[in-house]
Structure formats: structure tokens, C-alpha cells
Give the backbone structure.
Amino acid sequence: MKNLYPILVATLLAQAVARATTLYSLDTTVLDGNTGENTYYVAQTGSTASLSLDPTPSLTYTMASTAGSLTYMVGYFNSTTLTNVGDKISFSLSYTATSALKASDEAFRVGLYNSGGSYMTSNNTSSGSSATNGYTGYAATFRPSGTPGTGNTFKERTGTGNNLFTSSTYTNLGTDTFAPIGTGAVSMTFSAELTAGGLLLTTSYGGNVYSFLDTTPSTTTFDTFAIYGVDASSSASLIFSNLTVDSVPEPGQMALLIIGLGTVTAAACRRRATIAYR
């Protein structure tokens, strides 16, 4: 029986570590045309875009070849459902821009979505993909510079359409107007956490933190992120040094695992002490 204690301890430790899961990162990014592809771009009809992965790793997202045209990228990860109060999914990113994004409202947007099992399978240059028509989820939209309008805020996707970021398919949430994200280097997080009162959306960047509680969330399951950008000059690029989606368990579950680990370890120590005394 003595040899079972290390096994039990190792099992509990492995479970505790596994509870915090990275669902997507630059290390797991696979672009269109490669086995296991999970990341694509959409460009406006008559324009082009591109994604390239460097060994650093870093991801270069070159936006529309026609300045001011629609373009966004979509990434997929293993589906995760927020089940317990405190469960959270967090999307973090850091990028530098080769030239400034367009100084207009909602020129930069990030979102977390539930695809319902409908996935893009290739890059798209026709302003939208039918695969994303029925996606549900949430977005945060920003003005890069200048004075922001009220549309720069949290949004819920309540409509349908092949263009994942068509404004008419979203409903504004709350009354916050987000401060500009700035030009050049940007780091931010966008998260959704299950609370007793609903789904808490939070975004933070440059010392700014905004939150909104959706008391009737349309989804608590997520498997997709998307990033939208409008360039002020043709073929401007965003170079991502971080692009990560994490699933974070509610603290109580982690605490129980740690307590269990401590209990088993203490029992093992007592048993060894008793055997040594004998």
C-alpha cells in the first residue's frame, strides 16, 4: 500500500495543473493550407489579406491591400463551457502595428464566440464566410485614436450574417465608452466569467478596465476568437507576440484539489512516521 501514495499525490497534482488550460496560443497556431489548420482570414471582395507565422513565434496579420477595407482573422480552439460560478475564459493579445490603424470608431475589434460546430475551412476573400453566419458571442470594439463615440463598447452578437463583424448583427451592452487603445504597441485582455448573476465581460488595456454583467447570456460555450482591424494605409500589419486563449477554473474547484493533495501528502507522512517508530 505504501507505494500507492506517490501515485495518488502525482494524480492529484496533475489534475490541479490540468485545471488551468491554454486553449490557443502562437505555439498551436496552424494557418490555412497546413494539416490541423485552425486560423484564417476574411478580406473584403476585391481586396486581399495575409497571415504568416514566424518561428519566434509571432504572427503577422497583414490587413487589406486596399486601405480602409474590411478584414478580420478567425481562430478556433477546443470548445469550453463555463459551468461553475467563477469559471472564466480569457483572451489576451499583444501586438505592434507597422502603421497606425484608421482613426475611426470601432476600427479595432476583438470577440469570443460559439461556432455551434460550423467552422471555416479556408481563407475567404468575399467579405464573409457562410460558416460564421450563426455564430453567437460577444465583442469589444475600440477606436485606435481620437475621440471615441458611444459605439466603442461591449457588444453581443444577436443577429446573423456571413460577415462576422457586421454592425447590424450586434447589440450594444452597457453605457461605457471605451478609451482609445492607442497606436503602435498594444496589449489587452478580453474575458467572460460566469457569475451567480450572469456572464461578466471584462476588458483591460493601457491602465483601463471596463466590465459589464450580461444577466441573460446568449452563450456560455466558446470555441472561436476573432480580431478585426481597419488599416489607414494599404497592407498595414499587426505583428502579434502574444495571442492566447485560456480556460480558467473557478477558484473553489482548484482549492479542493489542493486540499486533497495536502491531505494525501499529510497522510503519507504520518504513515511513514508510524512505520519508522515501530
